[in-house]
Amino acid sequence: MVRPRFQRLPAEQRDGLLRAAASEFAAHGFAEASLNRVIEAAGISKGSFYYYFDDKADLYAHVVREELLGLLERAGPFGLPDAVDADGFWAELAGHYLRTMAALQSSPELAALIRGWVSAAGVPGLQRAQRELEEAAMPWFLRLLRTGQELGAVRTDLPDELLLGVAFGMGQAMDLWLIGAGVGDPERTGTPTVRDVAPLLIGMIRRALQP
After folding, report:
1. In the predicted model, what is the mean pLDDT of the chain?
2. Has this prediction a pTM greater than 0.85?
């Protein structure tokens, strides 16, 4: 986990290290990324780096976390749906998913980072960081699940952990497909737009989770 002393660095130094790390991880993935190249690009010593982070995995997790927060800010705030029925609940989710994926598609570097993060699910050095991110988000997803159940949009005959596992698994597969297939990429002709596919993907999750 990033040490508090990193946050006490001048903003210019923090941003320089994170920009260098994001570029390196996006270009080479976690496994092939060079910590030495990051340190050189950021203009710091290796000793200084270990004063702020435990290792490369720690840095990668922090970079992804910061980039995801930035993505959600660009996509716009999304609280619990205030819909009054099941159709409205799923329509709000589809709209938020569309905004989030559109923001993601506008940043090829971020798309590469997210693809690498999802693909590295089995990397031992990252498993703890991935669990921590999931655990931090879980209370919100549980509240979302409860809201859907109260509106009759989500089934109640199966355990919550199974329903969330199904939704997360489908979402992960969809995100990887969107990124890998170049959906919304103006340089890849013939591919559908995010607006085309977002309702279809949310519809798949809806059919799996609805009563």
Report:
1. 85
2. no
